Amino acid sequence: MNRVLFVVTAADTWTLKDGSKHPTGFWGEELAVPHRIFSGAGWEAVIATPGGKRPTLDRISMGRTAGLPGTLREVADHLATIQGELRSPASIGDVDPDDFDLVFYPGGHGPMEDLSHDEVSGALLTARLASGRPLALLCHGPAALLAARNDDGSWPFAGHRVTALSNVEEKLTGFGRKAPWYLEDRLRESGADYAKGALPLVPHIEVDRALYTGQNPGSSRRLANRLVADLS
């Protein structure tokens, strides 16, 4: 049986460039849909956050503008079944990624606030990449890659082909233009070979060796199904 570690943001606000705090957390679809697909494949899932803090669901991710009604019902129903796991997550520092067949980072704006500079998560990502074992990040989840560092201070993901929420997609949100920085820009500046789909908000994934990334919330299902196909 495969085991998957979900590394989830613990942030409940995102600091915008004007200094205001925007309520946020993890994006419902990006956690629930892959978790349901992996569980349906018979995989065991463990949820971990920085410091073992209970993660916050971004309420916007459950609003009527966040997806099709059927998908939102699916998300709500599955999140209801894993409330015990969400109430008592493990701490990232207490888990060994080598115990898992897959490490998966869902998004939401939360990772922009905490995982983008979390040293414990960064060390986990650095070690995971070096191991050559599967690693997947979705939407804003790749913000966590920015905290990874080799011993010499270089960025281990330089030259890797990745996708993540694009600048255009970020600006489509009502508050996205207030972002202190954009993930697409930061990944490119760090040395990633960033790629995106031809149209915004359309599912798009990239696979580079054992690194899997998805561009936006709508990519959740495609990314999870690809992982199940590849790891089964």
Automatic annotation (TrEMBL):
<keyword id="KW-0346">Stress response</keyword>
<keyword id="KW-0456">Lyase</keyword>
<feature type="domain" description="DJ-1/PfpI">
    <location>
        <begin position="30"/>
        <end position="228"/>
    </location>
</feature>
<dbReference type="InterPro" id="IPR029062">
    <property type="entry name" value="Class_I_gatase-like"/>
</dbReference>
<comment type="similarity">
    <text>Belongs to the peptidase C56 family. HSP31-like subfamily.</text>
</comment>
<keyword id="KW-0315">Glutamine amidotransferase</keyword>
<dbReference type="InterPro" id="IPR050325">
    <property type="entry name" value="Prot/Nucl_acid_deglycase"/>
</dbReference>
<dbReference type="Pfam" id="PF01965">
    <property type="entry name" value="DJ-1_PfpI"/>
</dbReference>
<protein>
    <submittedName>
        <fullName>Type 1 glutamine amidotransferase domain-containing protein</fullName>
    </submittedName>
</protein>
<keyword id="KW-0378">Hydrolase</keyword>
<dbReference type="InterPro" id="IPR002818">
    <property type="entry name" value="DJ-1/PfpI"/>
</dbReference>
<dbReference type="GO" id="GO:0016787">
    <property type="term" value="F:hydrolase activity"/>
</dbReference>
